[in-house]
Structure prediction request, 150 residues.
Amino acid sequence: MTNLGVHFIDMALFLTDSCSAKTLASAYQYSSPYDIETYATSLLKLPSGTSLVLESGYAYPMSEDSKRENRWTIVTENGYYILAENRLEIRGYDREPVGIPLNTDSDIYYTVYTKTTLNDWLTGAKPRASLKEMLDVNRILDDMNAKAGL
Prediction:
């Protein structure tokens, strides 16, 4: 959750224009000799009433197609938003579901992220995620860790 899930927490805060969330439950699993969770799941409630179910982890044994387990479901007053298996599904109430193919392997985005971040810094552009957003996410992660017994 610390390495992978924070991005999805940040995305949920951004999509719902929130800066906090209440952690209802978290559970982490360990299956390696290192002190890092290999799988984590958490249930969050945002101030708007939106709920976020988040699963993240390393997909062991790894394959080229399956490196990480990243799934999230955001439920809002407007419908469901589900990311899983390289697909974003938007299920708006009173509308037909829409499925959008989306590569969820974050490795392919590192080059774009690095170039964009360096360009923003060089040109003085406001960062897309500032230290404030990082602090908001970290507070939620701290609460999740506490709920997971860490």
In short: The radius of gyration is 16 Å. The chain has three helices and seven strands.
